[in-house]
Amino acid sequence: MREREIPLPAGAVLMCPWVDLDCRTQRPPRESPVLFSPDLARRFGKAYFGGQPGDDPAFTPLRTDLAGLPPLLIHAASGDSVLQEAQLLARHS
């Protein structure tokens, strides 16, 4: 049986993407560190991983091959806690 191909969209827009789920690049946001602190991100990431290793490429776009994806438009503001990972994703994609 041939695997069915799922059509991809023409592109994607990512607003303040949290893509470093093992939190190697997380830093507190300038404006409100309570909203999404590195500690909170680590807790969310751990829950999402469900016991799997955090550096597993299946869980983070920064460690997997993104070839074949449509173009990405990535937005993050200078004060966002995810700015560094958004920049890393832009270079990686």
- Rough shape? globular
Please indicate the count of domains. 1
As laid out across the biggest beta sheet, the strand order is: 1-2
**Element string (H = helix, E = strand):** EHEH
**What's the main sheet like?**
2 strands, parallel
Explain this structure to me?
This protein is α+β, with helices and mostly antiparallel strands. The protein has one domain. The chain is 24% helix and 9% strand. It is built from two helices and two strands, in the order βαβα. It has helices spanning 38-49, 83-92; strands at residues 12-15, 72-75. A two-stranded parallel sheet has the order 1-2. α1 links the parallel β1 (12-15) and β2.
List keywords for this structure.
93 residues; alpha+beta; 2 helices; globular
List the helices and strands and how they pair.
Elements: E1 12-15, H1 38-49, E2 72-75, H2 83-92
Parallel strand pairs: 1-2
Task: Please summarize what this structure is.
The protein has helices at 38-49, 83-92, and strands at 12-15, 72-75.
